[in-house]
Amino acid sequence: MIENPNILIVDDERSIAELVAETLEGAGMLTQVCVHASEALPMVREGSFDLIILDVMMPGLDGFELCARMRAESFVPIIFFVSQGRGSRLGVGPYVRWRRLYNQAVFAARTCRPR
């Protein structure tokens, strides 16, 4: 079990990314926020992350394309973050509510990637 997992949060809406970071930091996790998808891949290359929380809808490089590029270089667990309104536009059925995302992030960060 990882005691203080390091999580990268990628979301073009800084206020949302910072809220996610603040909440996870309250659970003893380390976080880094990235608000430009184009800057996330170099961060993954240079950092040692235990989990990535990735917004799907971002300008320019969207979360799906960014995920594909990350997967070519890394197998760090990724949780897609889709807000209610955005999820429905993507044709996603049930969406993950914030509380559920938080619980999944805590579980994945603490168990998925042994050091």
Q: What is the overall shape?
A: globular
Straight-line N-to-C gap: 9 Å
- Residue fraction in strands: 15-25%
Number of helices: 5
Q: How would you sum up the major sheet?
A: 4 strands, parallel
Low-confidence stretches: 85-96
Tell me the structural class. alpha/beta
Radius of gyration: 13 Å
Beta-strand segment tally: 4
Overall pLDDT metric? 78
> Which percent range fits the helix content?
40-55%
| Secondary-structure element pattern, one letter each | EHEHEHEHH
- Major sheet strand order: 2-1-3-4
Keyphrases for this structure?
single chain, alpha/beta, 4-stranded parallel β-sheet, 4 strands
What topology emerges from the helices and strands here?
Elements: E1 6-10, H1 14-26, E2 30-34, H2 37-46, E3 51-55, H3 63-71, E4 78-81, H4 84-89, H5 98-111
Parallel strand pairs: 1-2, 1-3, 3-4
Helix pairs in contact: 2-3
Give a written overview of the molecule.
The structure is a single chain. The protein is α/β, with parallel strands linked by helices. Helices cover 45% and strands 17% of the residues. The chain contains 5 helices and 4 strands; from the N terminus they run βαβαβαβαα. It has helices at residues 14-26, 37-46, 63-71, 84-89, 98-111; strands at 6-10, 30-34, 51-55, 78-81. The protein has a 4-stranded parallel β-sheet with strand order 2-1-3-4, with helices on both faces. Helix 3 (63-71) links the parallel strand 3 and strand 4. Helix 2 packs parallel to helix 3 (63-71). The longest helix has 14 residues, at 98-111. The termini are close together.
